[in-house]
Write a structure and sequence with these properties.
The chain is of the alpha+beta class. Helices cover about 30% and strands about 25% of the residues. It is globular.
């Protein structure tokens, strides 16, 4: 399965579709990160159910995953805003349970589920980017959702190479990196 997604399709297929299916690990890379609100997982078991009005912080969903023993890794390019940080503080399980890396060079956006399914495209991890906001407030985005190993494997390697710090020594932005990997 490989599909082109745009706008609201990103939310229904990724946030409501593959993210709730995660069993072992969820890796997210984004340049920008904001206070994304989504339907709770019980409401998002299938993409067809996506579209209700009871929204919770995406961080609550991630906290539930961490509590169930799912590995959650997040790479982002800049510090999130105050609303995101306030929500983050509400979920102490994330403080140590979710692995985070700030890398000012990251501009790629992807969500990788269990190393088997992935979204990659233009959408940041924000309500407007992921299509969670109303039609008049959402960005024009696109991307690809796939389970094709020939597409998923290079995404995993790109994510993992940043995570390992393969580029840290020569990146030229070390002064802007709060915690270099190496």
């Amino acid at each position: 399965m490989t599909a082109f997604l745009s706008n609201r399709d990103i939310y229904t297929s990724v946030v409501c579709g593959i993210v709730p299916q995660v069993r072992e690990r969820l890796w997210i890379a984004t340049a920008d990160i904001k206070d994304l609100y989504v339907e709770p997982p019980a409401q998002t078991a299938t993409a067809a159910k996506c579209g209700g009005r009871d929204m919770v912080p995406f961080l609550e969903v991630l906290a539930g995953m961490v509590k169930r023993g799912i590995e959650v890794r997040l790479i982002h390019a800049k510090e999130p805003g105050p609303n995101w940080r306030e929500d983050f503080d509400r979920y102490p399980g994330l403080w140590e349970g979710m692995e985070r890396m700030l890398c000012p060079r990251v501009h790629f956006k992807c969500i990788i589920v269990d190393g088997a399914k992935a979204y990659f495209g233009s959408a940041n991890l924000t309500g407007a980017g992921m299509g969670a906001k109303s039609e008049k407030k959402r960005n024009f985005e696109n991307g690809v959702l796939t389970d094709d190993p020939a597409l998923v494997a290079p995404l995993i390697e790109q994510f993992d190479s940043v995570w390992r710090g393969d580029f840290c020594r020569d990146c030229g932005r070390r002064d802007f990196c709060g915690d270099p990997a190496v």
